[in-house]
């Protein structure tokens, strides 16, 4: 009986370890930039194609969670403007900078917005790398630059 339980446990652990959605490790950096003068918010990320198959299409997007940021921006998904493709010759990995700038709908709440993004307990902004097969990688952003 103990042997069966141990065997089932080991198989379950092996199965679960293969389900790591973030295995691509494509996100090498990210931040949110808030321009108080212009009342804009820019979502920025640096991605790499290091672990993709050659000529694989992908795109960056930002998933926004929580009423504070959704109300400030007016949406919960922000797509970057370009679809990317991994290098045909992956001997050298490339880095791609993606960003999207939006006008803030409630500029009077900038301080509250900054606080929510910086809070390490919150998941207000998540960078996601996607393609037609689904989500390849994701990472929560807590870095905010203000000017």
Explain what this protein looks like in three dimensions.
The protein is of the alpha+beta class. The chain has one domain: Sandwich (Immunoglobulin-like), CATH 2.60.40. The protein contains 3 helices and 9 strands. The strands form 2 sheets. Strands 3, 4, 5, 7 and 8 form a 5-stranded antiparallel β-sheet that branches. The chain has a 4-stranded mixed β-sheet with strand order 6-2-1-9, with helices on one face. The longest helix has 16 residues, at 2-17. It starts with a helix and ends with a strand.
Explain briefly what this protein structure is.
The chain has 147 residues and is α+β, with helices and mostly antiparallel strands.
Continuous helix count: 3
At the fold tier of CATH, the topology name is: Immunoglobulin-like
The CATH architecture name reads Sandwich
Structural class: alpha+beta
Biggest pleated sheet: 5 strands, antiparallel
The gyration radius over C-alpha positions equals 19 Å
> What overall form do the CA principal axes indicate?
globular
Order of helices and strands: HEEEHEEEHEEE
How are the SSEs placed, and which strands pair?
Elements: H1 2-17, E1 27-35, E2 40-48, E3 57-64, H2 67-73, E4 77-79, E5 84-85, E6 95-103, H3 110-118, E7 125-131, E8 134-141, E9 144-146
Parallel strand pairs: 1-9
Antiparallel strand pairs: 1-2, 2-6, 3-4, 3-5, 3-7, 7-8
């Amino acid at each position: 009986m103990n042997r069966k339980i141990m065997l089932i446990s080991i198989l379950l652990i092996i199965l679960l370890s293969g389900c790591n959605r973030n295995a691509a490790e494509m996100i090498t950096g990210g931040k949110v930039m808030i321009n108080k003068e212009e009342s804009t918010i820019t979502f920025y990320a640096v991605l790499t194609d290091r672990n993709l198959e050659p000529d694989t299409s992908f795109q960056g997007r930002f998933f926004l969670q929580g009423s504070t940021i959704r109300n400030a921006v007016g949406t919960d998904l922000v797509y970057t403007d370009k679809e990317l493709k991994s290098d045909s010759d992956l001997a050298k990995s490339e880095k791609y900078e993606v960003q999207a700038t939006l006008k803030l709908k409630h500029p009077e709440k900038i301080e509250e917005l900054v606080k929510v993004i910086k809070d390490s307990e919150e998941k207000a902004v998540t960078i996601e790398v996607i393609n037609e097969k689904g989500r390849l990688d994701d990472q929560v952003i807590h870095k905010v630059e203000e000017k």
